[in-house]
Write a structure and sequence with these properties.
homotetramer, alpha/beta, TIM Barrel, 39% helix
Chain lengths: 260, 260, 260, 260
């Protein structure tokens, strides 16, 4: 039974004058953050600021690279990018954040792929493999954050990377461990206390109840929470509070006893 | 009397399907290159390719950061960027190239600012200072390539950076060491043998004849040559040949005896 | 004594997933809007939506072109753009909105230049002239919205354009009719009732009290109000209410009796 | 038997300092051009220049809209764009060119979708329908250039547009009228005289020999030629010369006797 868990969230998703979500509020809730690197969102200032803030607060800093798609926020599937280009695209984004982190005495602990790049890397090994290779080349000590058992999990292991497996607090699961499509009813859990309950069970028992009512064993050391709306932040806060009330510590995955 | 000199050139100035100049030809001529980093030109693939090629050929690799101005090729003066943003903009670009270099076993030796960013940093200490700080933060062992005595030279020294001072093979100088404005007659030397002659004198005597006919002492360990047209490449080749005929070795500035 | 006035505001300043300001709230307040055209902000969907909404509500639709500077929100002064390119840049943006307007049975009535492009065109005739020519070439029936007497006002008149002169509800004026620099105390009027009072006097008397206490005659048929914060919207609402209470009608400048 | 034919080519594919192909050479060969509109290539200056040149030379001007994908040159398939956004994306690009054309006394006669947008619209009616609606809304008198019988042909007809059906001089056909995939041998015809021969037969007999040797009836009033390499230009010139030698006039499709 785990006595600690990591909470992660995607931050730094503004661009220039544009902001998205309340990063400062989320920095009080999570123990690791995934920072957009300028291709689908994010810019050097936002990245530098989050490098500094995560350093100050002892939060694990990760890169959140995405497709070159600012207008579509990296959510559009783009086909026809050669594997070598995908690799370089990811290395570029990680490297930019690494240098900005270094300039604030911070360093990266992980990478989580954003949006369509992330989704495709879950199921398509031809996307997952260059993603994993890119992370390894940028720094072999970085962990890749992925869904347990997905293509990216497999590719990361093959590439020699550590994997920080993650679960979602607010998403329903199918019996095979995949996420229920957002198009189906019940895919998203919007009740904060129900979501918190699921997270507690996940941490304490390592299981989650699937959409069909079965018990699924889920190996996850980090729980993804969202900060893109006041309601999302309220849910994340509620999850944090419930975890603390249960005596479960929220700590960066890099500081978990069984990580190294 | 110097027995070796560095020749540098700006490469990697394409973007996606677009190319500019003949990088491969220049790699046979120069001993150090400055690679565009994706803001005014360049993309991850081009950067990775040049990291690999310079590694193979023993050429010093530098970052060539510029303003976020792909359409204007970084040549437009953009006002109103806070110093902290300038710093982050430059760190971001250097970091991206650092990671791509690392992925090919290569590392950066220097930075040269591009276009309007470079020009402004020559004369404006409010641009030069954040540029120098950015380079230092990205890696204190990087050299900044600048004109001798300009604002960037001063700022780099203040920031604790080494400076690789450069001269232009094809530009006329004023008596005070500044470049003759391109708008004036005689500003650009287009005759390859005249340009080569100037470079020889610069290397052997450390002087250049100014536009008024005076002899100017010029402290330069790297000569900037261009590759953006067949004529420019021919001139660069001619300079290299003349230097070799004079027994002057073309070597990365990092390998000069008096560098470290 | 005028019995009607136009209220205008800059809308459509989002991009993709990013939003800025509350456009829908402002559509209930203003009688004409200036829509960003995709270079410093705005995108085809936002533009199309505002074309449709302004058509439905009888609001005058204008283009709000800016520099190619999404990251700097068009607020950065960019030097080195030839006059012919400035012209084409503005025609391009106007044309894009014209077609989207047409697709909703709407048409453009005016153009107001955004941010640094607007500021430069106020004082620099080398920017104002190509701006005015661009508007004329895109459609000679378009009005240019400008400060009274500025370079753009002069250039528009020379180009054969009608000018919709504007005043600011929340900005202090110097005795010469220029705006007090935002860097000086008292430059911005933040009290809604004081701002409303100024607008009433401007409409009824055609004057505004300057920062030195003098009475300035100001020829303005449209008042610029802002919607980029809840406080700005509250002020705009307050101005509208005060005008209505005084029996002053808020009507698109194109429908003013003395317009044609 | 046709006594005239249109030759079309995609021009204006540069961006800022970048150029692609030799537009000026192609303007001496073709009778209609399709101009990139700034999303996958092209910029306001290039568009304005081609508006002016086509006006001077009596060449039909068309818009060549593409996905927002400058780095991928519009060749990448991007999924997840709603139909309404696709429509606005295309209207925006057409509108920009319409205004620039107007500023040179020129007007648009047609639209041809570029790259991945064009390919998807050939086979996918969910892409073809918004494309056709966009063209109609931008101007119902514009023709859509498409492959005969493809989804875009059907959608254009349904939308009330005229269709300028096109054939490729350098591409092999399957028996069903589709193009042989570039991945298969024999897909591209590189011999200029063979290509010219095919065009002659197409114009004179309305047929083309398919890859299996069958005779395919092909209804085409415009032949697409390329200008992106010296070899492509040489082939286009050779086709033009052969057509002229056969007494076949090269004329914009809008001036064909049977067009209106």
């Amino acid at each position: 039974m785990a006595d600690c868990i990591d909470l992660n969230s995607d931050l730094g998703e503004g661009f220039g004058k544009y902001t998205l979500g309340d990063d400062e509020a989320m920095l009080d809730i999570v123990s690791s953050v995934n920072v957009a690197c300028g291709f689908h969102a994010g810019d050097p200032d936002i990245m530098a600021h989050l490098a500094e803030r995560t350093k100050q607060k002892g939060i694990a800093l990760g890169a959140h690279p995405g497709f070159r798609d600012l207008h579509g926020f990296g959510r559009r599937e783009i086909y026809g990018i050669p594997a070598s280009e995908l690799e370089n695209l990811v290395i570029y984004q990680i490297g930019a954040l690494q240098a900005l982190a270094r300039s604030h005495g911070q360093q990266l602990s992980h990478v989580r792929a954003h949006g369509a790049l992330g989704n495709l890397s879950d199921s398509d090994s031809e996307i997952a493999a260059p993603l994993a290779r890119a992370v390894y080349k940028a720094d072999p000590h970085l962990a890749l954050m992925t869904l347990p058992g997905c293509s990216a999990d497999v590719a990361a292991t093959e590439a020699g990377l550590k994997v920080a497996r993650q679960a979602f607090a607010d998403r329903a699961y199918n019996d095979d461990g995949s996420l229920v499509s957002r198009r189906l009813e019940g895919a998203v859990i919007s009740d904060p206390s129900a979501a918190a309950e699921r997270v507690i069970r996940l941490v304490q028992e390592g299981t989650v109840k699937t959409i069909t009512g079965n018990k699924l064993i889920l190996d996850a050391r980090t729980i993804c929470v969202h900060g893109d709306s006041p309601a999302a932040i309220a849910m994340a806060e509620s999850i944090r509070t419930r975890l603390e009330n249960e005596g479960i510590e929220i700590r960066p995955f890099t500081e978990h006893d069984d990580w190294n």
